[in-house]
Structures are given as structure tokens and as C-alpha cells.
Specification:
The complex is a heterodimer of chains A (225) and B (223). Chain A is mainly alpha-helical and 225 residues long. Helices cover 79% and strands 0% of the residues of chain A. Chain A contains nine helices and no strands. The chains are: A mainly alpha (225), B alpha/beta (223).
């Protein structure tokens, strides 16, 4: 298995290469796609889910295009924008689909993301379900005793619900912190050390290769000549 | 030999409510004690005071470092389990004890085995069922190998089957335990002694025979 930190580096390099590509000629588009296909294989990401995840970028792209219609951008530039956005989204989808969030966090921790931030992100992931569930249950409890009308008073009820949700979350936070202290938490957790295999090297160096190739041929070469 | 000596423990919540008044008792090594009392009698508060979360008046002396000796398991496993995967959660305590990665791994494995959750390491915490969460929550504390378990309502909200299994798990641990509960069966099967709190006071202390004193139990409103 490719380590999550190697995946992050590889995907980051690929996105950087796509972003720095000034014209995106067809053969380089093909190169990116081919490379992405290689990464999908290497990361063992299910293709169908990658495609679905990629399409999530469409609404945002649409908004950008609508606004771009009022600007002076040429159709070619807009097409370039669409291509780059789709490629980058696909790259992120490969990372997101093929790597589960907890191990991604560990990878980022090993890449040097501060422990505190890792902790906060992992709490968000751990408790989001719970918070949504609590809000949902509260809503059900209200709806069972609410039969319409009295909209102004409903606003007050809604305020109360949000307030008590906040208090519950706050108090849960306190209890969790107590549970952490009781198990010796001291805010300086170090990531576990791991070893890297051949697949990690392939992922990282091939991505670096793509990046260097694009920047070299398009930017440095132009500067030179 | 006394593991924990509690002497005239009193605690008043910041809002002025007196939760505990002059509670005194002794816990010996390996001894299991049932802590009974109605909701709001002060059971959870007593556990939090012992664990060192709340700062009460009076004296608590622990034979050894308090944080290593005492292990509190919260009633709601969602408070106890805060990491994303089961492994990370059970490993959290041992890692903070400064153990090596190999030691941490073996502690996690051992603790999960003790609670019938062997092989759960890679599971996501928020995808566990309630019963599984309860068991893993106990494992997070067992992995630290404390001398005394402080258990807050360990069998609450479990179905009869899970409850029986959980009682067995507690029976199989080797530690002393102070168990706050309403589950008289649990006390009968696991404990050696009973403490009964009423409105923050320790009113009765004695052997399991107390549970059969129906007059007393009715007076304490426990049956």
C-alpha cells in the first residue's frame, strides 16, 4: 500500500503541474490522464467512485463560467479553465476515494502538520455524525409536538434548539477533554514512525518527474531561449 | 491493604448545589465495590472526584500515582472514545504513558481481547454499535493497566445479551473496581461490597447481604 503522505505529495505535484501548465496541449492532457490512471491503479482507488467524486466540481465550475460570461475571457481560456478544474478535481478525487480520512490525517501529521490541528480535524471527523444526529433528534422531538402556525414563536424555539445544541456540544467537549486528561494527554503527540516501500518511491518520484517536466519544458525553457 | 482512602469528601457544584457531603470509605486492592443510589445522589460526582477531574474538599489518598492507578470509564462511550479509529483510541493512553510502539500495540491487542473486541483495530469509532462502543470504551482504560477501575453505569442501555456479556467481561478483569450502577444483578455477580449514597451522603456500607434486606432496599428506594 502507498502511504497516505506519499499520496498527498504525488497528488499535490500533479495539481501543481496542471495549474502551472500554460496551454495544456492535447498530448499533455493525455499525459496527465495517463498518469492519473497509473495513480488510480497504484492507490487502488475504485474508478467509478473517482468519476462520481470528480463530477462534484461541476456546480462550482458552472458558477465560475456564469460569472466568466460577463468578463472578457476568450472561449479558449474558458475551455482551458474547465480542463484544469476537471483534472485537478479528478486528482483530488483519486486521493479522497483511495485513502480513508483517519490515515490521511496520520499522513499529514507525518508531513509536519501540527498535532493540535490534526487533533482538531480528527475530532471534527469523529463527532460530525454525532452532532448531526443530535440536531436531527432534536428536530424530530420538536416536530412531534408542533402542528404548524405560530411562526414568530417558532423562531424562538429554533433559537432555543440552536442554543441547547451549542451547550450540549460545549459540555461534551469538556467531558472529552477530561477523558483525554485522565488518559495522560499532554498536547505533544508524535506521529508513529513508519517505513516506506517501493510503491511510495514510485508515487513520489514519478509525480515530481511530471512536475519537473512541465515546469522545465514550459517555463524554464522559455526563460532560457 | 488500602489502595484508596477517602476521608470526609465534600463537593459543591459551582451553581451551589451540594453534591457530596463528608463521604468517607476505603477501597482495598482487588476489591470490587458497588456504588448504589438514585439519579442525582452523587455517584458520578464521586467518581469524577476520585479520578481527579473535580476538586473536592476533604482528603483522597491513593497508594501510587493517581492518574496511573485509577482509570475512569465514562457512562457515555461517545465521551470516552474521541479518536477516529479503535486502534488510535485504545492506544491513546499507552502512547501518553510513553511506551514504545511495540508495547503500545501489544497493550491494545490485549485490551481489545479482554473486551471481546479482538481485531477491531481498524474499525471507525463512529461506526461501532452502542454495545461495541461500551466495550471499546472499557478497553481504552484497561490498556493503561490501572489498579482501580471507576465504572460509571457500565451496563446501562445494553440489551440483556450484551449486558450479560459485559458483566462477564468485568468479572474477568483482575483490577479492583468501584462501579456506580442501578443494576443490582451486576452488583450481585461482580462486587464484594456495597456503598449506598443518598443525597450526597454515604448512608449505608456493607456486604452483599444488604441487597437481600428488602426493608432497607425499599427505604433506600433502590427496588
Amino acid at each position: 500500500m502507498v502511504r497516505p503522505e506519499s499520496r498527498v505529495i504525488a497528488i499535490f505535484c500533479l495539481i501543481l503541474a496542471v495549474a502551472l501548465d500554460p496551454a495544456l496541449p492535447w498530448w499533455r492532457g493525455a499525459l496527465y490522464l495517463l498518469y492519473l490512471a497509473g495513480l488510480i491503479r497504484l492507490f487502488q482507488a475504485p474508478l467509478l467512485r473517482v468519476c462520481k467524486r470528480t463530477l462534484l466540481v461541476l456546480p462550482f465550475l458552472l458558477v465560475v463560467l456564469v460569472f466568466a460570461a460577463w468578463s472578457a475571457a476568450s472561449p479558449e481560456r474558458l475551455f482551458l479553465l474547465v480542463q484544469k478544474a476537471l483534472l485537478s478535481a479528478a486528482a483530488l478525487a483519486v486521493l479522497g476515494v483511495g485513502t480513508d480520512f483517519p490515515s490521511l490525517l496520520k499522513g499529514l501529521h507525518r508531513l509536519g502538520l501540527p498535532s493540535m490541528l490534526v487533533m482538531m480535524l480528527s475530532f471534527m471527523y469523529r463527532y460530525l455524525d454525532l452532532l448531526l444526529g443530535e440536531a436531527k433528534r432534536m428536530e424530530i422531538a420538536r416536530n412531534q409536538r408542533y402542528f404548524g402556525g405560530g411562526y414568530l414563536r417558532q423562531l424562538r424555539v429554533l433559537g432555543n434548539m440552536i442554543g441547547s445544541l451549542f451547550l450540549r456540544t460545549y459540555e461534551r467537549g469538556e467531558r472529552i477533554y477530561q477523558a483525554m486528561i485522565l488518559r495522560g494527554y499532554s498536547a505533544e503527540a508524535k506521529p508513529e514512525t513508519v517505513t516506506y516501500g517501493l510503491v511510495d518511491k514510485i508515487a513520489v518520484f514519478s509525480a515530481l518527474g511530471v512536475l519537473v517536466f512541465v515546469v522545465g519544458t514550459e517555463h524554464l525553457w522559455r526563460l532560457w531561449s | 491493604m488500602a489502595l484508596v482512602v477517602v476521608d470526609k469528601l465534600s463537593y459543591r457544584y459551582p451553581d451551589g448545589r451540594q453534591a457530596l457531603s463528608e463521604v468517607s470509605f476505603v477501597i482495598r486492592r482487588g476489591e470490587r465495590i458497588g456504588l448504589l443510589g438514585l439519579n442525582g445522589a452523587g455517584k458520578s460526582t464521586l467518581l469524577l472526584c476520585l479520578a481527579g477531574v473535580l476538586k473536592p474538599e476533604g482528603r483522597i489518598s491513593v497508594d501510587g500515582d493517581r492518574r496511573r492507578t485509577l482509570g475512569l470509564v465514562f457512562q457515555d462511550p461517545n465521551d470516552q472514545l474521541f479518536m477516529t479509529t479503535v486502534y488510535d483510541d485504545v492506544a491513546f493512553g499507552p502512547q501518553n504513558l510513553g511506551l514504545t510502539t511495540d508495547d503500545v500495540r501489544s497493550r491494545v491487542k490485549q485490551a481489545l481481547q479482554l473486551v471481546d473486541a479482538a481485531g477491531y483495530e481498524e474499525r471507525l469509532t463512529h461506526h461501532l454499535s452502542f454495545g461495541e462502543k461500551k466495550r471499546v470504551a472499557l478497553a481504552t482504560v484497561l490498556a493503561m493497566q490501572p489498579e482501580l477501575l471507576l465504572l460509571d453505569e457500565p451496563t446501562s442501555n445494553l440489551d440483556p445479551k450484551r449486558r450479560r456479556e459485559f458483566i462477564k467481561i468485568i468479572q474477568n478483569t483482575r483490577q479492583a473496581a468501584l462501579i456506580a450502577t442501578h443494576d443490582l444483578d451486576l452488583v450481585r455477580q461482580v462486587c464484594d461490597r456495597v456503598l449506598i449514597l443518598q443525597a450526597g451522603r454515604l448512608v449505608v456500607e456493607g456486604g452483599l447481604a444488604l441487597l437481600d434486606d428488602l426493608d432497607l432496599m425499599r427505604r433506600m428506594e433502590l427496588i
